[in-house]
Amino acid sequence: MDMMEIMKQRHSVRRFTDKALEEGAIKILQQEIDACNREGGMHIQLITDEPEAFQAGKPTYGQSKGCRNYLAIIGQRGKEMEAGYYGERVVLKAQELGINSCWVALTYKKGKTQGAVNAGEKRYLVVALGYGENSGADHKVKAITEISDYKNGDPAWYKAGLEAALLAPTAVNQQKFRFERNGDQVMAKVSGFGFYTKIDLGIVKYHFEIGSGKGKEVWK
């Protein structure tokens, strides 16, 4: 399955079965985490079979059910975009392995969450992982002209990258980002005020790279 198809299939899932993560999947996922940590200078950690962080409490919007596995997205302070970029890279690897996920910023118990946080680091957020009761649903997306300077006649790779960016998960689906192209280079920036917009920007930049077929050299 190609990465564009994986992005299209990946939706936020908050209700999980009690099936444990398969050992083979854990091994592959850990290899991807290790690669991301080396490349991005992150300290992302996979926590398995741990129910405390998502222990059921008073029902609130976005609360997960049955989650016993998660990614602790940890890194040096000031690396919000890297947290999003490399976190989403791991999330899409999980989707490829048949593991559902949901980025979670607020509705988990921070004091119960595992994962070592070293000096100078912070836990940005977590990603719930597991085998979902369902596969989630599509989220509403903006038109590419709302989030970019795209116009008819622009390169196909640019349009494909923008379409991939719109598949990216963002906080409360706010999609507060904008792309502008100058020749073969692209500038991506936060558009307006919102929650976790720098993390979101890292996520959408990774999606854009996949969709466009360009590497990090595309960024201006």
UniProtKB/TrEMBL annotation:
Any matching Pfam family? TM1586_NiRdase
Q: Which molecular function GO terms apply here?
A: oxidoreductase activity
Classification via InterPro entries: Nitroreductase-like, TM1586_NiRdase
The record, for SUPFAM superfamilies, names: FMN-dependent nitroreductase-like (SSF55469)
Domain (Putative nitroreductase TM1586): give its ranges.
3-212
Q: What is this protein called?
A: Nitroreductase
